[in-house]
Amino acid sequence: MYGLGIIKGLGITIKHFANTYVEDFKQGIKRYTAEDRFTARQGLEAQGLFTVQYPEEKIAVPERFRYIPFLVVNDDDHPDAPGQPWCTSCGICSKVCPPQCIWIVRSTDPETGRPKPEPQEFYIDIDICMNCGYCAEFCPFDAIKMDHDYEISSYDRTSAHIYDLQKLTKPLSYWRTIAPTRAEEERTAREAKEAAKAEKAKK
Amino acid sequence: MSKTSPDTTTNDVAEILQQKFPDSIHPDDREGYSGIVVSPDSLVEVAQSIRDDFRYNLLTSLSYVDYIDEDFFEVVYHAYDTVKGGPALNFKARTPRSQATLPSLTGVWPSANLQEREAWDLMGIHFTGHPNLKRLLTWEGFEGHPLRKDWKEPFYEEDKKPFKSRWPEGRPDRAESRLPYGMNVQYPPGFTPDGWSPEGESALYDSLSTPMTGSGVDVQAIKTDQLVVNMGPQHPSTHGVFRMAVTLDGETITRLEPVVGYLHRNHEKIGERNTYLGNMPYTDRLDYICSMSNNLAYAMTIEKMMGQEVPERAELLRVLVVELTRIVNHFWLIGFLLNDLGAFFTPALYAILERELIVDLFEALTGSRMMCNYMRFGGVAYDLPPYIGGPAVKPGDKARHMDTMKFIKDLVYERLPRAIDQLDNFLTQNEVLVSRCKGVGILPPEAAVACGVTGPVLRASGVPYDIRRSDPYSIYNELDFDVAVRYNCDTYDRYLIRLDEIRQSLRILEQIIPGLEATEGQEYWAGKRGYNVRVPTGEHYGHADNPKGELGFYVVSDGTANPYRYHIRAPSLINITALEEMCRGLKVADSVVILGSLDIVLGELDR
């Protein structure tokens, strides 16, 4: 019968539309405020509205989420070296970077003229960065990590899109906030490595 | 765990061919290479014999390599048998760099048409006898042939990455600031930009204004004017920046020529500058809806060259994500097909509802929703995360915490079957869909194979050819699934086959889940997890059955850290070879639907 498909199609739209309000009526404001309701709203038994009300609501990104990289430095309350960058300017990230968007100037000791394991300058051109995450994946010092802050629009791409050392630097506590389990795993791995090294030195 | 089948049959064919043409064929005995080298004079004759006597009826890939030190170009053909399956018959032809000319194989396999144009465009190999040898991907006024080894791109820095300017004295340098607008253009001597009209452009219209003979459309009987209409490149119905130059007689299509290249970025040249691992995130950007499938095809190609084994859990994870990607792709296709029919975006949004959850899984697994960059040589980058979700950090962040295995099971056993049944229920019998699609855009099986069409489009034309069965890779030979096939060869069947394939993918996923649970905690990435991958000298053509068709990578290694040649056989490009055949004699509105059912993605088509 002609027209049946259109009625069926409209029916599904109306059903979804109406269900949103039925659910709103049943659950009240809790549907949008209570912590566990958010998952339920997209869950198996969910009815009605599926979408997320950005920017009032944002889906918290998973720990592995990768956006523009940042450099890890010691927290400000670190006993020995507050603000000390973990980067040793070994250059692995700039070598492995597929679009070659990382520029590093290695520090040299002014007295001896020897290279120092610390970056003097560090730049990432975020227009070129493709967020592949290789720099973080292959960094042997856990010194470069992928950020979770995806709201980085700016008015001027020519001046604002080359991030320098100051803009790239973020404390370890930030990494612990955005990726708690991974930060903990990395800490255990580092400690195990240190312990093995100390054991070897003893012998 | 990839099992190599002894390709005795292909070797036999190569031997018989050598006996048949003793003067014009010799085996390619360079180390790491395979196949036979055919002399250009008898190339067409040998090709005909390969097609007719040995039934290698599908010429999938035509790759071309610039061996600048040996001073010749090599064109490499890979032909398959769609009936028996099995590995490719690989034959090559060489031509000197200074006078690069080879006979065209379009007369034997029409699928060579666009690929030879591409080879002319990017490598400058002239194919005599080609009906329409114009530039394909670069624009008409382009100077040079960019894939030649002695051609340097603008802002050229070095031949190979990593560039030395990045470390230890790396100061950023915005290339565009060095070349302000106006200085960025160089004209050849004697050329004035004003008053120039592109040669290829007029050639395009000239070729369209001569009516096809034997096209089934009698345009001479009625006295009407022919009208050339450009559909696209800026039109939503073309799914990106794709242009069809259509000649119309009234509203009937008499000629159609696809014009492509608007998204061309010379992916292959970038690939030759890159390291092997560095190409992995670039493959995400080919067919950006199916980044996982692209990753897999590339990873398998390089693993085969390296002789790298893949642990079982990695294979299971790979099949999991690749089949989920197939479902995502087909959901998109169904949604967009309805868009093309005029049901603007309502069906599309319902179709991609479950897709949203699949990309949520990908995001938790790999860190990115679409540009997954998940596969590595010897496995995958990450194991499944224990749960999906993350900590709420920003204001407004809603934290989720969903068990990953339960999430996957809910998807596979509940949500996806429900969603596909719902689509089936609402769309399949819908009178608009039926009346617009049934009997429209017929692509007979012989024409489909001749045009090199692969994937669901080929299977909807009644050819049960699926690389997962014919030349099995990964663990597909241990899995139980049917090759979906439909026999009416029309747009309606091309819609139905997508539904069939989603159901088959679900069958595969149901078999994968117990394996995933059994191998929990096992190794997922074997081999050295280094970034500096060494690939032995040689060549390999690796291919996989992507949601859009056969995606192939032809890689030549010279033993260094960067590929010497990195060619991609893009299914979207080769599938549009059949577009004119399908559209001729129909109305303009039908061409939109037919293009929608072909399923192209411009990121891959233009590369």
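The domain at 69-178 of chain A is CATH 3.30.70.3270 (Alpha-Beta Plaits).
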